[in-house]
Amino acid sequence: MPLNQQNQVELLKDILSNHQVDCCGSVSELEQLERLVQSLKDESNLNPNVLEQIHNYSQNGIQSNNLDQHIESHQQQLSQWVSDVDQFS
Q1: DSSP readout, 6-75?
Q2: What highest taxon heads this organism's lineage (predicted)?
Q3: pLDDT tens readout for residues 14-45
Q4: What residue spans define the domains of the chain?
Q5: Residues 6+ positions from 42 with CB-CB distance below 8 Å
């Protein structure tokens, strides 16, 4: 069953929140973020700049040698992105 736009926004927010709170994550979560962002770019009212920033965060994290450090270095942005996405959920 495909996720509707609301489900996608909630999942995006959940993954970002988990990274922000836990300061850790997985490559598969970052890959999921990329898929969500791509889908939401085409069909949502979310700020395209925020979606692009999240996409870049995901790509850089996937390529990072130390994923936890990558996540920790983006704590401020993660908090802002959660807030931005929360406005649309």
Answers
A1: HHHHHHHHHHHHHHHHHS---HHHHHHHHHHHHHHHHH--S-HHHHHHHHHHHHHHHH-S-HHHHHHTTH
A2: Bacteria
A3: 999 999 999 999 999 999 999 999 999 887 78
A4: 5-86
A5: none
Q: Which residues contact 10 (CB under 8 A, 6 or more apart)?
A: 89
CB 16 within 8 A of CB 78: yes
DSSP letter at 81 equals H
pTM over 0.90: yes
Side chain identity, residue 32: Q
